[in-house]
Amino acid sequence: MGIYVNPGNQAFKRIDGPNYVDKTGLIRLINERIGKDDSLVCISRPRRFGKSYAAKMLTAYYDCSCDSHELFDKKIIARSKSYLSYLNHYNVIYLEITSFISEARTLQKPLIEVPGMIMEAIHDDLLRINPDLPELRTVNDELLYCAEKLDGKQFVFIIDEWDAMIREAKDDEEAQQAYLNLLRGWFKNGSFTPKAIAAAYITGILPIKKDGKQSAISDFHEFSMLHPGDFAKFTGFSETEVKRLCKRSKMNFNDLKAWYDGYELSKEYAVYNPYSVMNACREKNCRSFWGKTSASEALTDYIDMDFNGLQETVARLIGGAEVSVNTTQFQNDFERFRTKDDVLTLLVHLGYLTYDSVRGTVHVPNEEVRDEFRNFLGNDRFGEHWIKLIGRSRKLLNDTLAGNSSAVAAVLEEIREEQYAPQYYNNEQALRAIIKYAYIAAFGMYVKVEERPSGKGIADVVFIPALFSGFPAMVIELKWNKTSGGAIAQIKDKKYAAALQSFSGSILLVGINYNEKTGKHTCSIEKVQ
């Protein structure tokens, strides 16, 4: 048993426990590809979406140097016909690329030396495990000798944070190319790959870097946040899995859904951020667990680029809008940005936005991420347009809380005419869009829920105050070519305030109407307990 070659199953044993959410069904998908043309798989996910857990699980399953029956016999994968055929059947090479980068920096070595460090580590492990291994020309020759002559077992490569070199050496093209050449030597070598490698599973934040329009390692089959394919169900937690965790930890499921749901990976699967859900269940508290990563620290820099009005687009996204995006031109790296769409596509891969592949749009997935975006509100680095919007939004919120209905209507007019100006402002959906945009300043103070089932119908927009904030809740009903008073009457008649039956404070009933003939908004506000 080595460090990088056949490291055993101890890492997965530490993960496997009473709170482990069984994702071993992923193994079946890899088993189906072993020894076939699609045996090279690249999975890209945001940070804290369980990438390392999956890599350690696969290592424990395939590693021939240990016995993992006890770990997997009662898991979902044990129901698969392929379970015993591949269990502990291969030599495994498991690499965490970030650890090599850290070591290089500790030793004050340039990053271009990382590929050589990786090959040296594999060579040392092969000799440690196989002292009689003959002296051969290259590490690849040693791997091929092991697979064909020594024990007859091919290798499964499992690489965690494969793209760390692309991210960390973003300004060092020579180091990036040296690393990509290392990968090509393993996975795009016609005389080596099919003989020595049964399968490869590499995972990172970004899909494989492009050379022009093509992938730099073209033989890999890629599954990303844009196109997850069969791997969608293993990207995060499903609603069923979160409900089980809530029951086990006595958490309110609706609270977790509002905070962490919303990543739409396909028509069948909307997933939750697993890291955040586990922490919320552990702490018995829903909040943002997103920060303190290099990705979040870099977010300001990306938005600060302001390609084609990017900052205004971000403001619309925070407000709840969907924005069309072309994802095809993004080069899957951190240095080549040419358009606003490139930055928005990166934000999908980083987990700040979710992508609807049917409509070709992006939106903010949930309250946790919206809370991260909220940290940028009022930032002096952003333009006058942004700061003006936030100022108006704060005034709108304060006027709403004060019951100043005429002032609310006036601010809505200003925001629509000067800042939002949608192409078509001709129905209630357009009014809903401007309301989401206009109340940006409420995020952080409130959780916004749209079309919440309540009483005898569905409330248009409900703002639920943050815990212990002391603010009143707000139920907003929207009308088109009717009256704001009629909107208030509908809230009462349909008992929309029942959506807040567990809320003990005061509630503001807010009716907003737009009249096409006059081109004006009107507002009515009433306060109830």
Explain what you see.
This protein is 41% helix and 17% strand. It is α/β, with parallel strands linked by helices. The relative contact order is 0.08. A hairpin with a 4-residue loop joins strand 16 (507-515) and strand 17 (520-528). It has 22 helices and 17 strands. The mean pLDDT is 85. It has a five-stranded parallel sheet with strand order 2-3-4-1-7. It has a five-stranded mixed sheet with strand order 13-14-15-16-17, with helices on both faces. A three-stranded antiparallel sheet has the order 10-12-11.
SSE arrangement:
Elements: H1 10-15, H2 25-31, E1 40-44, H3 51-62, H4 69-72, H5 83-86, E2 91-96, H6 97-106, H7 114-129, H8 139-150, E3 155-160, H9 164-168, H10 173-187, H11 193-196, E4 197-204, E5 210-211, E6 214-215, E7 221-223, H12 239-249, H13 253-260, E8 263-264, E9 270-271, H14 274-283, H15 294-304, H16 310-318, E10 323-324, H17 340-349, E11 354-356, E12 361-363, H18 367-374, H19 384-401, H20 405-420, H21 428-438, E13 446-454, E14 457-465, E15 473-480, H22 484-493, E16 507-515, E17 520-528
Parallel strand pairs: 1-4, 1-7, 2-3, 3-4, 15-16
Antiparallel strand pairs: 5-6, 8-9, 10-12, 11-12, 13-14, 14-15, 16-17
